[in-house]
Structure formats: structure tokens, C-alpha cells
Specification:
The protein is built from 14 helices and 20 strands. The two termini are 42 Å apart. It has three domains: 279 residues, 3-Layer(bba) Sandwich (FAD/NAD(P)-binding domain), CATH 3.50.50.60; 115 residues, Flavocytochrome C3, Chain A, domain 1 (Alpha-Beta Complex); 111 residues, Methane Monooxygenase Hydroxylase, Chain G, domain 1, CATH 1.20.58.100. It is globular, with a radius of gyration of 23 Å. By secondary structure, it is of the alpha+beta class. The strands form four sheets. Strands 1, 2, 6, 7, 8, 9 and 17 form a seven-stranded mixed beta sheet that branches. The chain has a five-stranded mixed beta sheet with strand order 18-16-10-19-20.
């Protein structure tokens, strides 16, 4: 079956993704009077940044230049050699002045009163907070409603970035059963991470790594994909609500679902220090002795009990969280049955970029969580949104110059359509049976990813995952299901495979990456740089 491109559109800057990173890039591009297409796989203002599971989101900023070295020290200390030094310098020197960009897209950031260090940070610094996502959405939508330079395409999945001679030409999207080609001099990818490939995720659906694969197929590279944050969240009494790790210093014990004690709590001399340390950071990290607590989580969740002292703590950090939890969510940590587990969260790695958010493909930029920005083996609290602000601004600034100084490439839609069909043909060569439908395929993918690529990893688990992928691939026919979004499923499968191969290649434990068959940190420091040729991954240690 030959796929037809039903519609051809054109702009100067194409932004893919409508979370904070995508909206900031869009606002900056419109400020520079560029013709913009904003494309999202959902409705406007989607993605992880508009999917809050707690009262606020925070952004760390430098107080002044005297904090530059300390901030860099914090990031490097927790990056464990996997961080990106040049990008860190750019981030630190720009983040404070970029905070007002949040106002440009509808938010009203305010400075936090206390000076408590952010998660994984040694030093305290100014932290701006944002909330009221619905109000921000409404303000943004009202602001751009009458902008003649902006066109918006919702509910459309990216399936292919089109490039020639290492320059982007545009991208192909699927909207329901129709394929659309948007011609553009510049593409700014803001498609987010990969967390929704897991069954238990702190992200909305559709954050599934298709942007990574599309960028790889266009000629870009990725790095640090194995470093994914897993953060405890509630299974009970209410599913998918962020758990406040700071409460753990009042934990009286960890139990399985049958009420059997797994680990003594804060009142035990043998475990007291572990619980106190674990209460100081949210994501799992091998770099702390208290990671042993996380390793004791049963696969179906850990039941926790707390001492009466918890609700007597009047520190602002406790009262704000506990009041929100009780009044807004309806959870009382002393009265309710508390069951938590690890949920997939931030992807620390991503598409390799420079200080201008440029990839290795001319005209292709990556911002937000789809990119490997400042983080390494661990991600500091309050850096995710900040990275979106700084590098979305940098991407647009450079893309304006790129448009001015580069020649407009001619396009032939027939050639693009033929090349697109050749690509489809190449990925359909593995088609066999068609016994799985879309819903069950996605379910099986998420279940296998969660079971085998969670916090406890091993070669055996990766091989099980790869075997599951092979089975799914042989039983879900891409070619027969194209009208029903099978190309998105294919890209999702490939993003899971990318993660699996990255995990397999790092034969050590470091930061957010733990291998039970290699439970120590190697002295051999390397990053994994991954390219893609002919639909196959090429992994190099650099």
C-alpha cells in the first residue's frame, strides 16, 4: 500500500511539542516575527510540564555571579562524569534572566521564601515556583489567538523528519488517517522524554521517545539514555500522585502487601541513618548508601507506616506538602493504607546538542527533555524547566541567524513521498502476523519495559525485553495498520530498544542506572553516543 501525503504546509520555524519548552520556543519565534507552525500530538499545553502531580514546579536560579561556581559544583558532583560542561556554563549564566519567559507563556512565577537546597544540591539558592496550570493555559491561548504568524496543528504525531545533505527540509505528521508534510527551514524538537513507555509513569500518555528516533533517523545522535529518574509515587490510596520523600525520616517501617516487615524504620539503630539520608532526595540514585531502601521495594509496591511525629513537624516544606496531600488529594499518611512504588520520570539524556541547542543536523534543534542538556547520571531538582527556558531561547536566537544566512532548499513533494514510502517499506520487512491490536500492543510494550528496564537492571532482563519486542514486532503488523497509527507504535518500539541497548552497554552502576549484575561503579569513565543507520543503532563509547 502506497501512502499519500494529503496536505503540504509551509513555515519558517516548525516547533514540535507544546509543553513549556515548545511554547517558549514558539513565543520567541513569534517575537522575532517568524512564520511558525506549532504541532502537538495532543491539545495545546500538553506534555510533562502541564501534568503536575504536586502543588508546584520549581526552577533553581543563581543568586548572583558568586553562586556560579557553587551551582556548577552541584551539577558536576551529581553528574558523575556524564554531564555536559559547556552547556552547564551557558545554563548557569542565563537562567535567572530567562525566568520572565514563563510570564510570556502565561505563568506567574514567584520566589520561594525559604532557602532549602533543592534535591541533590549541596548549596541553597533562589528557587522560583510555578503552579495554576489551567490559568496559565488560558492566558497563553488568549495571547496567541489572533497572531497571524502562528498556525497550530493538534492531535498530530511526528513520524519522519525529512532532511537532505544534512539539512532539514521539513517533517511528516499523521493526523488521524491523513499524512501531512510541513516544509520548514528550521525544526525545533520539544517532544519530551520517554517515561510514558512505562506502565507506571509520572508523565501523560504520548511522551514515548518518538522524537529521539526521528532525530536519529535524520542524522542526529543521542547520549546518556540509560540515566532515567525513577521517583516513588502512590499506588494506594490514590494512584499516580507524587510521594513526598522528605516524609521518610518519619517512616516506622516498610512492609509488603501482606503486612510482613521488610525493613525496620527510623526507630531502629540499624536503619535510622538510611531513612534520614533517603528523605533528602526524591529519585532513585545508586550514589547514596540509602539506595538499598529502594532495592527492597517489592515489585508490587512497598507499604509504609509513619510515626506520630510526622504531622507535628512545622517546617514549611512539610506543612505545605502534607496540607496539599490531605486537603487537595485526600491522603492522610497516618490514617490511610500507604502503598508506593517507583514511577518513571525524567530522562536525563537525549539528543546531543551544543550551547545553541543545535544538533548535528543543520536546521534541527532540540530543547527540553528530548535533549541531553546539563544533566548527567543524576538530575538536580529544579533544573528541568530551567533547561527548557534557556535552550529554547538559544535555539530561536540561532535559528533566526541560520534562516538569514542559509539558502532555501527546493523540495519536490513527489520525491519526498516516494522516499517516505521507501522508508515504510524498509521497516515493514519484519512484518509477519497480525494477531495483536494497537491497544494490546501498547499494553505489552509498557508491561515489558516496566518489568525489565526499571531501577533493577541486568543483561538477562534486557534480553527478555528484546525477546518480548521481537514477539510483539512479529505479531503486530506495521504495514496493515498504518491508518491506525502503526508508525507511532514502531517509533515507540524503537525508543524502547534504544533504552534497552543503552542499559546493556553500560556495564556498571552509576547515578540513576543500577545493574544488579554489575553493582559497582567503574573507574573507566565513558559516555554512550548513539547514531542510527538503516534503522539500526550504532553505539560508541566516548
Amino acid at each position: 500500500m502506497k501512502v499519500k501525503i494529503k496536505k503540504v504546509l509551509e513555515c519558517e520555524i516548525l516547533v514540535i511539542g507544546a509543553g513549556i519548552a515548545g511554547l517558549v520556543a514558539t513565543e520567541r519565534a513569534l517575537k522575532n516575527r517568524k512564520k511558525v507552525y506549532l504541532v502537538t500530538n495532543k491539545k495545546l499545553c500538553g506534555g510533562a510540564s502541564y501534568f503536575p502531580l504536586k502543588g508546584t514546579l520549581g526552577i533553581q536560579v543563581t543568586k548572583d555571579e558568586s553562586d556560579y561556581e557553587k551551582y556548577c559544583e552541584d551539577i558536576v558532583n551529581m553528574g558523575k562524569g556524564m554531564e555536559n560542561p559547556e552547556l552547564i556554563k551557558t545554563y548557569i549564566s542565563n537562567i535567572k534572566k530567562n525566568i520572565p519567559l514563563l510570564n510570556k507563556i502565561g505563568f506567574e512565577p514567584w520566589l520561594r521564601k525559604d532557602s532549602r537546597p533543592a534535591c541533590f544540591a549541596k548549596y541553597s539558592r533562589d528557587i522560583y515556583l510555578i503552579n495554576n496550570w489551567k490559568k496559565a493555559q488560558a492566558k497563553w491561548k488568549q495571547k496567541i489567538k489572533r497572531n497571524n504568524n502562528l498556525n497550530i496543528l493538534e492531535n498530530s504525531n511526528l513520524v519522519k523528519i525529512v532532511s537532505r545533505d544534512n539539512k532539514v527540509i521539513g517533517a511528516i505528521f499523521q493526523n488521524k488517517q491523513n499524512f501531512i508534510f510541513i516544509k520548514s527551514r528550521v525544526i525545533i524538537l520539544a517532544t519530551g522524554g520517554i517515561a510514558s513507555n512505562y506502565k507506571d509513569s509520572l508523565y501523560p500518555e504520548g511522551i514515548n521517545g518518538i522524537g529521539h528516533i526521528a532525530a536519529l533517523d535524520a542524522g542526529a545522535s543521542v547520549q546518556n539514555m540509560e540515566f532515567i529518574q525513577f521517583i516513588p509515587a502512590f499506588l494506594k490510596p490514590k494512584y499516580n500522585v507524587l510521594f513526598g520523600e522528605h516524609t521518610l525520616k518519619y517512616c516506622s517501617g516498610m512492609y509488603n502487601k501482606n503486612g510482613e516487615l521488610i525493613l525496620t524504620g527510623i526507630e531502629s539503630d540499624s536503619t535510622k541513618d538510611l531513612w534520614i539520608e533517603r528523605s533528602g532526595y526524591a529519585p532513585f540514585s545508586f550514589d547514596f548508601k540509602s539506595h538499598l531502601i529502594d532495592l527492597k521495594f517489592p515489585t508490587d509496591g512497598a507499604a509504609l507506616k509513619f510515626t506520630q511525629e510526622l504531622y507535628k513537624d512545622q517546617e514549611e516544606f512539610y506543612t505545605v506538602y502534607l496540607n496539599w496531600l490531605k486537603n487537595e488529594i485526600g491522603i492522610d499518611l497516618l490514617k490511610d493504607e500507604i502503598l508506593i512504588n517507583h514511577f518513571a520520570h525524567s530522562c536525563n539524556g537525549g539528543i546531543k546538542i551544543n550551547i545553541d541547542a543545535r544538533t548535528e543536523v543543520d536546521g534541527l534543534y532540540a530543547v527540553g527533555e528530548v535533549a541531553s542538556i546539563i544533566e548527567g547520571a543524576n538530575r538536580l531538582g529544579g533544573n528541568s524547566v530551567g533547561g527548557s527556558l534557556v535552550f529554547a531561547d538559544k535555539a530561536v536566537s540561532h535559528s533566526v541567524k541560520y534562516i538569514k544566512n542559509s539558502k532555501k532548499m527546493k523540495t519536490n513533494i513527489t520525491e519526498i513521498e516516494n522516499s517516505f514510502n521507501d522508508w515504510i517499506k524498509s521497516i515493514c520487512k519484519d512484518d509477519k502476523d497480525d494477531t495483536l491490536d494497537r491497544k494490546n500492543t501498547i499494553k505489552k510494550l509498557k508491561e515489558s519495559t516496566s518489568k525489565n528496564l526499571g531501577i533493577v537492571r541486568s543483561e538477562a532482563k534486557v534480553n527478555t525485553l528484546l525477546s518480548d519486542l521481537k514477539f510483539i514486532r512479529e505479531n503486530y503488523n506495521i504495514g496493515k495498520n498504518i491508518k491506525n497509527g502503526s508508525l507511532e507504535i514502531y517509533l515507540m518500539e524503537e525508543s524502547i530498544k534504544l533504552l534497552a541497548l543503552s542499559i546493556l552497554a553500560r556495564t556498571e552502576s552509576r547515578g540513576a542506572h543500577y545493574r544488579e549484575d554489575f553493582p559497582t561503579t567503574s573507574d573507566n569513565l565513558f559516555k554512550l553516543k548513539i547514531k542510527r543507520e538503516n534503522n539500526e543503532f550504532i553505539i560508541k563509547k566516548i
